[in-house]
Amino acid sequence: MRSPNSMPPRDADLAFLPLTALSRLVEKHEVSPVEIVSALLPRIERYNEDLRSYITICGDSALVAARAAEDDIVHGRRRGPLHGLPVAHKDISATKGVRTTAHSRTLLEFVPDHDATHVRRLSEAGMILLGKTNTTEFACGALDVFGPHRNPWDLSRYAGGSSGGSASALAAGLAVAATGSDTGGSIRVPASFCGIVGVKPTYGRVSRYGVIPLSWSMDTAGPMARTVADCAMLLGVMAGHDPLDPTSANVSVPDYGEGLTSGVRGLRLGIPQQHFFEGLDPEVDERVRTALGQFETLGASLEPVDLPRARDVAPAQAVLTMVEAFAEHASRLRRAASAYGLRTRRRIASGAFYTTADYDAAVQVRTLWRRELEAVLRHVDALVTPTVPLPAFTVEAQLAEAGPPDTGWLTRHFNFSGHPALTLPCGTTAAGLPVGLQLAGRPFDEATLFRIAHAYEQATPWHTRRPAMREVV
Amino acid sequence: MGVERAWLRAEAERLGLALTDEDLAAIGQAVSTTRTELAGVQPASPDESAGTPVGFLPISFHRPS
Prior knowledge:
The complex is a heterodimer of chains A (473) and B (65).
Chain A: H1 11-16, H2 19-27, H3 33-51, E1 54-57, H4 59-74, E2 86-90, H5 117-124, E3 128-133, E4 150-151, E5 154-158, H6 164-171, E6 178-182, H7 188-194, E7 197-200, E8 220-225, H8 228-238, E9 268-272, H9 282-297, E10 301-305, H10 313-336, H11 342-350, H12 356-377, E11 382-386, H13 395-399, H14 412-417, E12 421-428, E13 434-440, H15 446-459
Parallel strand pairs in A: 2-3, 9-10, 9-11
Antiparallel strand pairs in A: 1-3, 4-5, 6-8, 7-8, 7-12, 11-13, 12-13
Chain B: H1 5-15, H2 21-40
């Protein structure tokens, strides 16, 4: 398939190339889908035991699909830019014929007879299922069955939850594209901890059909990758109205590639004066403020904005999440409470003990918060904040009986309101741990977030860094 | 804002949930803490009321113009 005079990229290089670059190489017949999958599988075999990025690896079927894609592409039947490229799905998204466990003992034998809509759309675009990535149980709790997903930047550290398997696989070069789900930060937190890009689209932008629910009013599926352009390319396929999901929005999906390189000159970026910059780890604070300066250098204006209701969000979002999670899990909890991990059981069951008055109060807070946020976003193009107040902590801290630090402290606000948000890397700590920068914007305006993020990414080196891991021989 | 253990136990039984005493203790603590925090952020006066809780509706029902 390769042109006679081109040099073959090394497997490790292939594993770390951006999806957009791989797409161009495949289009030019310089790299084949089989070579890409063959570059990733030995790395998964070598590193997955330590990282626990994957719960299920679809090596054989991925190679079969890669050969079929190669045949199609060689014979002029290329479906589009994602054809022949592998993708890893969080093990909370249904995959037809491939078990979908949600990291739960209650679903160890669950093999769906259908694909989640976003899985189907990526498959129809020609992507190859590489495997199912690790998650906390039902995206909210225990890590008992398959163990904790570890951080490639420091194996003693946690990769973040709940889409941490996808994030660690991308950071370690065990995947070139992945998906996750985000109810309070579950895409953005692990993406921040692992130094990759993660997108929580607008509520309703990506169908949730086939995604095992946690909170119906806040769950969002989204792309994860190593660059902003890669995420833009994935979201363009994942997004769109789906009649199978009653909360899916019938809003047109733009070409996210257009305007990606328009820069930030003239854009107004809102810097919240309450909550989002309070109590930060000093290194996180310094890296994010340096990033703000970079945006000014690139021509954006920084505008202080008042969002006092941001401090009110945490308890209200917790009530809605747990009440809705219990409603989803009630019958399974009645049948098999002891099969749930301890932390999952207690968190989800807590939703049974809130009153209707608690729920109504939480909904009122949501209304007030959204109103405040919408008013601010009429005057600025996006908000810029840290993604997580601290860098990745240890696996032991994650598993401690007292519970881990609250990682959703700065992310849950945009699940609560439904607004789109993304994270991208903006530096590292002295210990070499990634720090993430969060951008949040207007409903259905992911394109502006991609534009801002891409401009920053292209002006900084953070997306090119790789964790120091011994290469596969 | 405390949650009575007896109420938790009775409610769990009514719902058919096989939760241990340790589960109920942890749940009671979490619910109590969250409820206290939520009470602290409620609108302070009727003027601050959100009125109809339109926030109940997912954002996708509000079509961008």
